[in-house]
Amino acid sequence: MRPVFQVTTDRDSAPWWERTGRGEFAVQRCDACGRARLPARAFCPACRTERWHWEAAEPEGTVESWIVNHQAFGAGGGEPYVVVMVRPAAVPDCLLHGGWRAAREPVGGERVRGVFTPGAGGLTLVDWEPAGE
Amino acid sequence: MAKRLLDFRDRTAVAGVGYTPFTKDSGVSTLTLACRAVLSALDDAGLGPGDVDGLATHRVGDSAPPTLVGPALGIRDLSWHLDQFGGGSVSHAVVGQAALAVAAGVAETVVCYRAINARSEFRMGGTGRALPASPEVQYQAPYGLFAPPQQYAMYARAHMLKYGTTAEHFGRQAVTQRANAVKNPRALMRAPITLDDYLASRWIAEPFRLLDCCLETDGACALVVTTAERARDLRRPPVLVSAAAWGGGESHLSGGPADPTTTAAAALAPRLYGQAGLGPREVDVAQIYDCFTYSVIVQLEDYGFCPKGEGGPYVASGATALDGELPVNTHGGFLSEGYVHGMNHVAEAVSQLRGDAGDRQVPGAEVALSTAQPGYVLPATSALILRKD
């Protein structure tokens, strides 16, 4: 099992985590140029404006990479566990990490779907499972 | 976009290098390590603390800053100093910035150092220490991803998937560097290894095994940077700073490159080579940031030594061995000499160009490339080209 870490959210990210708590995979949509961005922050990297709104997106993506962790880097991390790197369909120039929710290892490029999972400190995490299995 | 630093090329030089022993438990403070390495580098150059008017380091809250090292060595008037936040990404930036300060006339003699107890006090591998206070951590650590071997293994797998890079490719670089370390009395790991030893080493985070990972090390390394003219009057043959370049990196924030298999070195390399007025074919020896085996392979591609995606086969061909077309990490690198976060790569490049690298000397080495962490994990990188005077 993966180790348990309590992390601190920040003023940019707190509303995003609030939404995962409601089972929503939200992206920020720029009001000026329409570009979607993740993770949460004030400025659009394309047009450098601050106006934006939250938009619920499908928690879908493709597997970019993964690791099978063996070394116990933190408390409770003694057994092997998989972490995936996912390219979300809604924001394809972002790479998100998450836990892997399947008995088999991922396959490069496979389509995956987000799974909302309770984490430490009241955060709802987004793990990933094979789409359509 | 062509950028040139006016009159920078070859105007400054590394005039001395210094080390403490590399160990797993120094038993002393990072301040002590820093002072010992600084004095050792000054002695190598034939100078003393009274000649120093600049000090520069980088750290991640784990070491003694110039404002402590200066007074500790009785250096009262620092006309230039730099205490840069960052790990291996900025290791070469520190030396480049010192060279710029000297070229600009702000300081005449700068000692760059890095001092760490990275095994006995602050483990870079993350084992047991607190998470960094960075906003990015919240998107990784809850999933059990936060240590550099894990982060790098993720990028390495992406490269394997896209280009067919294999464990044997990683292993060949580990074996090659260990063979170099056998010839380096300073190296921590001097027992030869085979590809089978590599493949049999335990998993850390698949696709990485133990022998993909650098050594968490206690130790310090320092370099004296001064004007080329002054260096020519000192004890050792000067090694000229032909080019220094800075770059960005890979971020998980959208709006960045979002390509885990190409590093910021690809964008930095043309600036670096352009400043030096040469290309990868002119490089005789390279010290390439090897926090992990994969970082060597991807940088061989991004610094133009082989086509993109062919770093693995390039290593497997023997090209990076001491007798290959591009000897890489001739001291054994961080995988086998020790990990002083980048400064020991620059020091080895200097040694090769002075011709005093002993059994591991590359015959006739005149141009060296030395590189920093290529911009994963912390989106920044830096590199130097050094040249024999």
Automatic annotation (TrEMBL), chain A:
Domain ChsH2 C-terminal OB-fold: 54-116
SUPFAM superfamilies xref list: Nucleic acid-binding proteins
InterPro entries: ChsH2_C, ChsH2_Znr, NA-bd_OB-fold, Thioester_dehydratase-like
Domain ChsH2 rubredoxin-like zinc ribbon: 17-50
The protein, known as: OB-fold protein
Organism: Nonomuraea roseoviolacea subsp. carminata
TrEMBL record, chain B:
Superkingdom assignment: Bacteria
PANTHER family given in the database record: ACETYL-COA C-ACETYLTRANSFERASE, NON-SPECIFIC LIPID-TRANSFER PROTEIN-LIKE 2
Pfam families in the cross-refs: Thiolase_C_1
Protein name: Acetyl-CoA acetyltransferase
Ranges where the Thiolase C-terminal domain occurs: 258-386
Native source organism of the sequence: Nonomuraea roseoviolacea subsp. carminata
